[in-house]
Design goal:
There is one protein chain. With about 140 residues, the protein is an alpha+beta fold. It has six helices and five strands, in the order ββαααββαααβ. The protein has a five-stranded antiparallel β-sheet with strand order 4-3-2-1-5.
Amino acid sequence: MLKKTFDYIDYNGNPRKEEHYFHLTQAEVTELELSVDGGLTEMIRRVVAAQNGRQIVDTMKDIIIKSYGVKSPDGRRFIKNQEVRDAFVQTEAYSQLFMELATNAKAASDFVAGIIPAKADEASADKGADLPAGTSELTLV
């Protein structure tokens, strides 16, 4: 699970500091891998190599939205429903994250590595790598 902290000004002009969580379960990763030719990782590589801006944007948006959720108070569930996703997408925190991932390949790579369970991506050696300096903070939890 990935925890990102965002500092931003809300739509009422108030400064906010919020933590948001992102995670894909083993089942979700398997579903994504099987839904595209060559698997998710290979699809991301193809999109980036082709320098297709529209595809990069669509892919990053899809990954952010599929991985976003809210932990239940007892920690047993990671709630990912349309209401939770819509609420996040309507914030400046989402806008910051989207722009960061759509314009910075290393940040996007670190994000994807952080949301995939260890069992799904044991080959990833730098899951704890810090994001480049910016407006959000990456924490694996």
